[in-house]
Amino acid sequence: MPLKSTGFLLLLFGCLRAAIMEEVHGMVGGNVDLSCISPERKHFDLNKTLVYWQTKNNVLLNSYIPGEDTSKYIHLKYQNRTSLTLEKMEKGDFSLHLSNITIEDELEFACIVVNKSNTEFFFTSIVNLRVAANYSVPIVDDKTNNTEVIFTCTSHNGFPKPKVYWVNKTDNSLLNQSLQNDTFTTNEKGLFSVSSVLKITWTPNISIECCIENVNLQQNLTVQSSGNFIRQTITTPPNQLKPPEKTTNTVFFTIFGILLVILLIVGIGSRKLCKKKHRYGDYTGPQGNRQMAETTEYI
């Protein structure tokens, strides 16, 4: 049976509606096993078994034909990246090992196991591969002018394209996305970087959180007001970023505060002197101490 027979391959895919469906996740640059395990039979005679791993566009990842070297049929982008294990196949496990995952591998793959004698299906399986790459920890910078605060949140080298949210931590409300402007770029590997700019009116005690969501990993990376997970809040109005100059009232209250501290020191000293003269004056006996204990509140 010619491996590249288009009619045969199309016939196979036309019968995949009843195939076993599974979804797996893989990381860019990592490895993954695409599962294809017989639901019933536990032993296969590999001399009478054909195995095909391919995409719906008939791109061949790997195959097994008894007595034939099928590596020449494997598509160029999957050369030296896939492998089948004979020992496992004899026991009904036709899973494909895929290495060095790229974002182009996010596809549906079909595993087709056929009886060589009569070309009937033993079973089929479809694996949906979801590819992901971790985004860097977001970094948030802020700039303030007379009336508004501009926050910029950046994160790099992730996949798939992220979703960006801004949260007002004062009441944990999600800010309207019309307030933000998101810019996405990709590198030579197809990984995304994002820069999100949020402009809001300045208010006291601003506390903002940037959230980068990776849908495939079901992961949220959040940072509040600045990078490195350091919490920052802006409490000084824009027109008072520098400390105001001291006025006459400021000097008066400073002098008053110094005098108050001196009076407190004198008072504490007098109290200690009195305690030395009347060391046992506060003792009321066991009964008094018991009542004190009973009326003391412990938190």
TrEMBL record:
Residues 1-18 form the signal peptide. Pfam families: C2-set_3 (PF22705), V-set (PF07686). The chain crosses the membrane at residues 250-269. GO terms for biological process: adaptive immune response; B cell activation; positive regulation of activated T cell proliferation; regulation of cytokine production; T cell receptor signaling pathway. The keyword Metal-binding does not apply. It is a single-pass type I membrane protein. One of its GO terms (cellular component) is external side of plasma membrane. It is found in: Cell membrane. The keyword Disulfide bond applies. Residues 29-128, 146-222 form the Ig-like domain. Keywords: Adaptive immunity, B-cell activation, Cell membrane, Disulfide bond, Glycoprotein, Immunity, Immunoglobulin domain, Membrane, Signal, Transmembrane, Transmembrane helix. One of its GO terms (molecular function) is signaling receptor binding. InterPro entries: BTN3A2-like_Ig-C, Ig-like_dom, Ig-like_dom_sf, Ig-like_fold, Ig_V-set, IgSF_BTN/MOG. Belongs to the immunoglobulin superfamily. BTN/MOG family. This is ICOS ligand. It comes from Phascolarctos cinereus (Koala). The gene is LOC110214884.
